[in-house]
Design goal:
There is one protein chain. This protein is globular. It has 14 helices and six strands. It is α/β, with parallel strands linked by helices. It has a six-stranded mixed sheet with strand order 4-3-5-2-1-6, with helices on both faces. The mean pLDDT is 92.
Length: 280
């Protein structure tokens, strides 16, 4: 993005839309109180007739059940077959220090599920203020429901489960998990940078962080893995958004890293003929 285009909130207009829709970049672990620092966001929300998120979160209990069903290791695969004894000891010690339970209790879970548990708990430990509040994505959806507005999910639970738990082989998941466990300082540094860029509402800095490649990164993601998280999902969403916005002015709240860059939603909507302007 050009440097003057720096906002978490964007107005989408033109291309036949009778009223504008809004695109807002969320951070899934930042509390709702943060929104008070975002100029125009409450106004934008009030001026729409439906809310769009990555997922329709109205059925969280059912989603959790489905997630747990997919989070189990395949029959016959154990951590003994995936990691060395030394790595198992390191993993067990990390789990005990963060979650107060060890590998013995969690040994049936896929490595990607453990990675997720570790990173969320690590985040809550270092930023305790956030851990007991509703997140921004849930807030916008529950506010929509309070106003009897429709809530639309751009993805199904199956789509998210695939990205989270099934898009990598079990061996690759184990490799990334142990790399995270062995490099807690790196995890903390990445979280701090993300936290700072988001609080500064600096979408360009967020984008730079997402594409940053350091030669000595011990845990680099492959191009394919990055695409599965971002580009491939954006492409699908860009097919759905025109009819959604044409139907009703929409407040679209998705993870902030989906907005910027060549394959981001801002550029994607512009290529489709919409005016997409920062609200600041």
């Amino acid at each position: 993005q050009p440097k003057n285009e720096n906002s978490l909130l964007w107005e989408v207009s033109g291309n036949g839309l009778e009223k504008p829709s809004y695109l807002f970049g969320t951070h899934h672990l930042i509390p709702v109180s943060f929104l008070d620092s975002v100029a125009g966001v409450h106004n934008a929300f009030e001026n729409t007739d439906q809310t769009v998120g990555e997922l329709d979160m109205s059925n969280m209990a059912e989603m959790q059940m489905e997630l747990m069903g997919h989070s189990q290791l395949p029959e016959g695969v154990t951590y003994d077959s995936l990691l060395s004894p030394e790595e198992i000891t390191q993993l067990d010690s990390t789990l005990k220090s963060l979650l107060s339970i060890g590998l013995e209790q969690l040994a049936t879970l896929k490595p990607a599920m453990l990675s997720n548990l570790i990173s969320v708990t690590f985040y809550q430990k270092h930023y305790p203020a956030i851990s007991n509040e509703t997140n921004i994505d849930q807030y916008f959806q529950s506010e929509a429901i309070n106003r009897n507005r429709p809530v639309i999910g751009l993805e199904s639970t199956e789509d998210q489960i695939y990205v989270l738990l099934n898009s990598q082989t079990i061996e690759r998941q184990a490799e990334m998990l142990i790399c995270m466990v062995q490099n807690p300082d790196l995890l903390k540094e990445q979280m701090d940078e993300l936290q700072e860029a988001y609080h500064s509402q600096d979408i360009n800095a967020l984008y730079e962080l997402s594409i940053k490649e350091t030669p000595d990164d011990p845990c680099p993601s492959t191009e394919e893995e990055k695409n599965a998280l971002n580009r491939d999902r954006n492409t699908k969403w860009l097919e759905k958004l025109p009819s959604i916005m044409a139907d009703k002015p929409s407040f679209i709240a998705v993870g902030c890293l989906h907005l910027p860059g060549e394959v981001g939603l801002i550029e994607g909507l512009r290529k489709q003929g919409y005016n997409v302007e920062p609200v600041s």
